[in-house]
Every structure is written in C-alpha cells, then in structure tokens.
Amino acid sequence: MRVTVVGAGIVGLATADALVRRGHRVTVLEAHRPMGARSAGASRIFRLAHGDPELVAAATEARRLWDDWSERAGRPLLGEEGAVVSGPRVDEWAAAMIAAGAAHEVGHPPSGTLGRTDGPVLHDPAGGALDLAGAGRMLQEALREHLRPGRVVDLDEFDADAIVLTAGAGTAELAAQRGIAVPDELCHHVRFAFRLREQPTAVPPAHLDGTPGPALASTYQHRTPEGHWAIGGHLPDELTTTADHSLDDVRRRSLDAIVAHVRERIGELDPEPVGEVTCTPTAGEGDGVRTARVGNVHALWGGNLAKFAPLLGERLAEAVVHDHVAHAIGPPDDPADHGR
C-alpha cells in the first residue's frame, strides 16, 4: 500500500513509523521542518491523570508503547518522577482514575514537589516528563528514507492508496477538501523555562495546577532535558486568538503572568526566564483526539496529543490498512483544565 502522511510532527512520524514497520510504502511530507510546529520543544508532560476514564485507559496503553520506544532509543524517553495534579479538578480526575483502575493517591504533595499547593493533590506515579525531542530524533532516523520537504495544497495531486492528515494547524484547510470539518480557530501559546536556584537530589514531579489566578486560568510545569524547569500558563482564550492578537502581544501577557506566578508560588526558581517555546494550537482544544475518514483520506486532530503519540500512530496505521475510521479518544473539553 502507498501512503502519504502529511505533517512530520510527533503523531505524523509515529504513524509513518507504524506503517513502515507493517511493510507499506510511505512518504512523509513536511512544509517546514520535522518536529518544528506543535511538536516543537524538548519536552512534554506525560500523565495517566485525566478527567475521563477513556483518556486514562488510553494513556495507560500509550505508556506501554512509550516504554517500547525507550527500548528502541536505547535510553529512557519518559521520566519516572511522577506527576501531581492540584486545584478544583482533583476529585473529578481521581474518580476517573478509579474508574479506569489506574494507581494514584490523593493527599499531601509528594516529597520534592516544587512550589506551593493549595489543598490536597492527586499523585500520578506513572507520570513524568517526556523527552519529546529524543523521540523525534529516533523516529526521523528510522524514517530518513521516507521524509520529504513539501507543502501540500491540493489532496487531488497525490496518487496514493491512502492519505493521512496529521498536519496540525494545516489539517483544517486540507480536511475541508473532503468535507471533514476540523476546528480552525488558532491561538498563540508560549511556554518559558527557568533555572532552579539549587539542583534537587531527585527530579521533582511534573505539576498541573488548575487553581485559577488573577491572570492565568491554569498552569503546568515540568523538567526539561537541559535541567531547567518549564512552565506554561493558559491565558483566557479571548486573549490568545491569532485573529485578534499578535504573538508579541500574547508573549508579553504570558511572560508577565508566568513570572508573577513564579515569584508568588515557586520560590525554588530564579524568576528570570532562560528559554521559551511558542506554538499555535487550535483554540478551545482540551484533552482528546478526534478522527475522521472520507474515501482514502484519514484526518486526526485534537489537544495535548504528544503523550498519546505512539498509540495514535498504531491506531492510525491500523485504520489505514483495514480501511476504517481510527478510534477517537475522550470528549472535547476546556483546554484551561489541562497541561500540554
């Protein structure tokens, strides 16, 4: 089978890899550079903790596949430091963990948690930071004969048995050519990295804090492979949409809000940023995966997809090979509730 994968982010690469391992002829087209748009940045948070049991179950399956990727890479791609969830969603997410049979604890923050927390937290021992850049390098090496530069404008130009759209911000326009409605309102998002004043003896757990503040709806934080601490904060959607706000404007608002958050709640960090990552996600996307198929075109979109990447690659590959719609995961919900 000849398959064209449009988009070389982590999900597109995972899909192409799964198809190549099944013996199919695959071409991956990328308009800019692999791992350069929504998959940019060295790391992401992995977690079993979600507000829906189906998402918890999918993350559990994905974690096993991340272990397989680690074995292929010859080094861990997923940290063992765990993850902590705090704020008003703790009870709901704990209930979803119970329904899915996932190990967790609710109570005091585990030793080494950075910053101040209010109230009990949910501790997800299977969580941690993903080495996303490392995973991307492994997949690109495996797919080096299949990667091609190229911007796709018209799906009719391809003589392929199947076309897979994993093009991030470009998916909506391409999917519309087959009548597939994909959300297309985009927003800017900026994540900053900070130095720890003292390096801890153990890696602190990743932390998703849903406690709303004066400027941020929620925050998420985790270590980076460089040993820094990455913090992202969700501004209200109306302050981030690309149609109404420039990246410079969103960057300034995000920087002011996140630095203020560090000064107030995370004394272990030097509040002067040492790095940043920008991306342009779809506005209003929370956790969850959506899929569609029309003819030979398969499309996938959603929010916070990196943690599911190896699972999504396997499911998309199976959908292509067996000519069915890949399984969607979880309900769409409020992006302010979730870390990337």
From TrEMBL:
Its cofactor is FAD. SUPFAM superfamilies: FAD/NAD(P)-binding domain. InterPro entries: FAD-dep_OxRdtase, FAD/NAD-bd_sf, MTOX. Keywords: FAD, Flavoprotein, Oxidoreductase. Residues 2-318 form the FAD dependent oxidoreductase domain. It holds the Pfam family DAO. It comes from the Bacteria. The keyword Oxidoreductase applies. The keyword Oxidoreductase applies. This is FAD-dependent oxidoreductase. It comes from Actinomycetospora termitidis. The lineage of its organism: Bacteria, Bacillati, Actinomycetota, Actinomycetes, Pseudonocardiales.
